[in-house]
Amino acid sequence: MAKHETPLLDQLESGPWPSFVSDMKLEAEVRAKNEAGIEFQIPVDVVDDLMGVLELSYVHGRTHWKHGGIVGVFGYGGGVIGRYCDQPEMFPGVAHFHTVRVAQPAGKYYKADYLRQLMDIWQMRGSGMTNMHGSTGDIIFLGTRTEQLEEIFYELTHNLNTDLGGSGSNLRTPADCIGSSRCEFSCYDTNALCHFLTNLYQDELHRPAFPYKFKFKFDGCPNGCVASIARSDMSFIGTWKDDIRIDQEAVQAYIGGEIAPNGGAFKGRDWGAFDIQKEVIDLCPTECMWMEGKELKIDNKECNRCMHCINAMPRALRVGQDTGLSILVGAKAPILDGQQMGSLLAPFVEVNPEDDYAAVTEVIESIWDWWMEEGKNRERLGELIRRAGFQKMLEVTGIKADARHVSEPRCNPYIFWKEDEVPGGWERDVKEYRKHHKR
Amino acid sequence: MALPDNAKEMVLDYIEKKSKTKSKFYLKDFYTIFPDEGPRTVKNFINKLVGEGILEYWSSGSSTMIGLKGAGKQAGAEGE
Amino acid sequence: MAFVSSGYNPAVPMENRITDIGPRHFEEFYPPVIKANKGKWLYHEIIEPGVLVHVAESGDEVYTVRCGGARLMSGTLIREICDIADKHCDGYLRFTTRNNIEFMVDSKDKVEALKADLKDRKFAGGSFKFPIGGTGAGISNIVHTQGWIHCHTPATDGSGTVKATMDEMFTDFQDMRLPAKLRIAMACCLNMCGAVHCSDIAILGYHRKPPMIDHEYLDKQCEIPLAIASCPTAAIKPAKHELPDGTKVNSLAINNERCMYCGNCYTMCPSLPISDTEGDGIVLMVGGKISNRINPPKFSKVVVAFIENEMPRWPTMTQTIRRMVEAYASDARKYERVGDWAERIGWERFFEKCELEFTHHLIDDFRDHAYYTWRQSTQFKF
User: Fold this and answer.
1) Is the Cβ–Cβ distance between C70 and C98 less than 8 Å?
2) Among candidates A167, A369, A375 on the partner chain, residue whose Cβ is nearest the Cβ of B61
């Protein structure tokens, strides 16, 4: 029998979409029966109490959690979020219920034995409930008691060669799209770069270094499946400089209807025959494509690599081979001064694992040095850029201003010149001036 | 520039002076103790004091603060 | 319940301590066909909703079956996922950014058995454990935040609003009939732990009341300077307060006009609770995207200023989303995202076609951004 009645949550068991309520009931039942003979280190009925407190929130329309200041294991400034229930007598199993963030492998690839080992730790030392995955990308272990934190960390590091993720004023656990591991659009190996930088910056990830949170995300191409341009302080988006590769026979196969456009993404409706003029050439934002007889032509110099034609005809068109990445900076959610999209800082950076991605880390570290020095408490990089000016960021990164940095030049002429930019500087001799200009 | 020999005392003095009003500080607050040092040097030193068990972190989840181990009104309440 | 030590000795925390080792290396978890063909993929095709094939230069193929999953997931269910991976995929699997589970096999003749196995698995309550879908011009899984399951400042629930929405939109998870892909995201308060501000449709939990002040306990529980410093709009200042019994206590005063209901002060000070049954609810935003395809990424816009929390299934919210999706499905052009469609027909027409009321709350009045969203033109539609 269920420990708490949950009539409201029970209504979320019906319907086709996987029910988290059914899943929690399953976990509660498995714990109660304990057929595996696990020596539970937190209360056996923790999931029952979790459902109980959630039901109470459904009754009240209010949360029943309080924040705690626990930040991590000894010496770490992140990786754990403290959480306490505000009805501990009613739900003692979740009176202390802290989150543990666990570093996920790049690309979110797993093997079953590893996931089982993670669950061996978590079902014994925690609630057994997880998020696969949290919004930033970590594996989230949802709810354990303070005294289990070091034990979990010890087992993760000693037995599973796995570390905690980031939280607080740290570098947050970097996350990537699937990249070239399984995507033909990817212009670089996102998994490799994400893994490399995650390891290179473990100190910044685990110990507070910054005025506020800082996020890296890695997208293999301008389609941006991991949304780096919207939600990371530094966004690394794959791109290319040379020509889109064209297979003219495949172009004809699309025109002839032998291949479904857009990788078959529109199969659910009859949109009529594929019309290359209407669906590809006319939708090209730079109007740099045309047909010459049976040949598709692209004026690659004018292409802005929006990906539409490649997405629409993936068997006929491929990204170029002179690949690298663009770095955009300053994206964030609306708190406080409004939402910001990443702004282009470095149009093209080489991705070279042979020299430990020196071109990438150079930009990262110059940005960090500036932000650590100039950023106010709780000021995201994007806000600092707005406060100090885009030019200042170019100055600290040593990147030359370029028309690519703006969508349009400024509308106001209020240009602030620096003294050394004006011949002769600002110190002038008024007596000399008065020789020719009476008072 | 290296940190002065009594850097630890300087940090503890700073915390003591402010202790009447608050027990937790942002990392940047500690920069002001060592105006001639780069942020990275100060950060590494403060984090070292945490490693020695003298200071400790406190997190709001989104940002992290630093204070004397065990100080502050919430520490007792949480039984941590 | 006997304490079982991991080997950690609290008396000497630094003994044998391992730190800063990061995540496991991804290559340990690549299926062999992925490892062999990495960087050499030629093209992909969605064979049917939820089933993809990627073809490599070598001629190798990898077939992927994508399943929706609740982000809130039990260890027991994860073990079942592992069993499926062992049975069909040599133990390999992956998760997507949108909380989908992907099972990969290296030949077409393994796909049907995998699909059949996944389709048959249901929870006791009747819902699918592993619904196949989430590809192409349809609705993929919702990325979301914790909500009432585990957060101290949410204005609504995460898992529940998502379950209710995905039940309503389920056929579009398993179909590809829309003019383009449609991405829904959910965040349970305006701090947006999961940034939802660039989604085709965003569900956002929102508080409408400033925090209460528990004067009697505030100075005992909280450090006043930290509570003051936590406010991003500087709406909090120190104040003396006289309790009913005449005792004077140190406390705070809040400038309610300046409060933007972020809950940061409650994080620092438990004597400033913010949640409220009537005050809290849902904001709906529309028209954002993160892809650079055809036109640049764009932000979502607020189109419904408030819907009250209707536990457990939020019917007003799901029906409003359904109306917007149907209007979009019937009116937009192929390849046009929701935001592109709204911009082409004009937002005045968007409200009309989606049967949404335009209210004064939808006109921006927050700082510099606001002016740029007012109409500086005589070009509008009647």
Assistant:
1) no
2) A167
Tokens for C132, please give them: 């196949």
Q: From residue A220, give the alpha-carbon distance in Å to each of A228, A229, A237, C64.
A: 10, 12, 6, 19
Contact C22 A202 (CB under 8 A): yes
Q: Which domains does chain A have, with CATH numbers?
A: 7-159 (3.30.70.2500), 175-239+325-419 (3.30.413.10), 245-318 (3.30.70.20)
Per-position b or e across C95-107, b if 16+ CB within 10 A of its CB: bbbbbbbbbbbbe
Torsion angles phi and psi, residue C310, rounded to 5: -120, 85
Q: What is the domain partition of chain B in residue ranges?
A: 7-68
- Indicate yes or no: CB of A158 within 8 angstroms of CB of C6: yes
Tens of pLDDT along C243-280? Answer: 999 999 999 999 999 999 999 999 999 999 999 999 99
Going by C-alpha positions, the residue among C221, C214, C126, C211 that lies closest to residue C170 is C126
Domains of chain C: 26-120 (3.30.70.3340), 139-208+278-373 (3.30.413.10), 218-268 (3.30.70.20)
Phi, psi of A344 (to 5 degrees): -65, 125
H helical segments located in C41-169: 75-89, 111-120, 159-168
Structure-block tokens of residue A185: 């659009």
Give me chain C's average pLDDT, please: 96
Residue A207 to residue B40, Cβ atoms within 8 A: no
From chain C, pick out residues whose CB is under 8 angstroms from the CB of A8.
311-312
ipTM, 2 dp: 0.96
Inter-chain CB proximity A18 and C49 less than 8 Å: no
How is residue A423 written in tokens? 């011949």
Strands C281-286 and C201-206: antiparallel
Whose CA is closest to C299, among C378, C185, C206, C188?
C185
The answer to whether C334 and A272 are in contact (CB under 8 A) is: no
B61 contacts on C by Cβ (under 8 Å)? 267
DSSP β-ladder status, C72-74 and B64-68:
unpaired
Q: How far apart are CA B55 and CA B16, in angstroms?
A: 12
CA angle A28, A42, A115 (to 5 degrees): 65
Distance CA C248, CA A182 (A): 66
Query: What is the distance between the alpha carbons of residues A365 and B9, in angstroms, rounded to a whole number?
Result: 30
Distance CA A346, CA A400 (A): 9
Backbone φ and ψ for A85, nearest 5 degrees, come out as -85, 140
* Residue ranges in chain A whose pLDDT is less than 50: none
Counting as contact any 3 or more CB pairs under 8 A, the partners of C are A, B
Cα C224 to chain centroid, rounded: 33
B24/C223 CB distance under 8 A: yes
Domain B7-68, what architecture? Answer: Orthogonal Bundle (1.10)
Token reading at B10:
């300087």
Assessment of whether the complete model's pTM goes beyond 0.95: yes
Give me the residue label for tokens 């990308």: A137
pLDDT digits (tens, 9 = 90+) for C26-60: 999 999 999 999 999 999 999 999 999 999 999 99
Cα-Cα-Cα-Cα dihedral sign, residues C121, C126, C130, C136: positive
Residue that has been written with the tokens 């889109």 in this structure:
A244
Quickly list DSSP for A335-397: TTT--B--EEEEEEE---GGGTTHHHHHHHHHHHHHHHHHPPTT--HHHHHHHH-HHHHHHHH
CB A231 within 8 A of CB C297: no
How far is the C-alpha of A336 from the C-alpha of C259, rounded, in Å? 12
Q: What pLDDT sits at residue A380?
A: 95
Rounded to a whole number of angstroms, the distance between the first and last alpha carbons of chain C is: 71
State which residue of chain C sits closest to A224, comparing Cα positions.
C291
